[in-house]
Design brief:
- By secondary structure, this protein is an all-alpha fold.
- It has two helices and no strands.
- It has helices spanning 2-5, 17-73.
- The longest helix is centred in the middle third of the chain and has 57 residues, at 17-73.
- The chain is rod-shaped, with a radius of gyration of 32 Å.
Length: 74
């Protein structure tokens, strides 16, 4: 009988619950290590945007002052 020889064996092809929990735990540990780095990068990006905005405002104000000075000279 073919069925009786496979009766006592269990299928080992898929993930077990323990393996799945271990993968989830490893992903959680890696994510917890990565999130502070991402937070620092986001903070640094916000600082760069602020400096760029200030630079653009200074350029705009300088151009405006130059235009006013050119009007007075003409």
């Amino acid at each position: 009988m073919v069925g009786s020889s496979q009766h006592g064996r269990q299928c080992q092809n898929g993930f077990t619950l323990i393996k799945l929990l271990m993968v989830i735990a490893i992903i959680a540990v890696l994510a917890s290590l990565l999130l502070p780095a991402l937070s620092k990068a986001r903070s640094k990006a916000n600082d760069i945007v602020s400096v760029n905005n200030l630079t653009q405002m200074m350029v705009g104000i300088r151009m405006h002052v130059d235009d006013i000075e050119n009007m007075r000279i003409s």
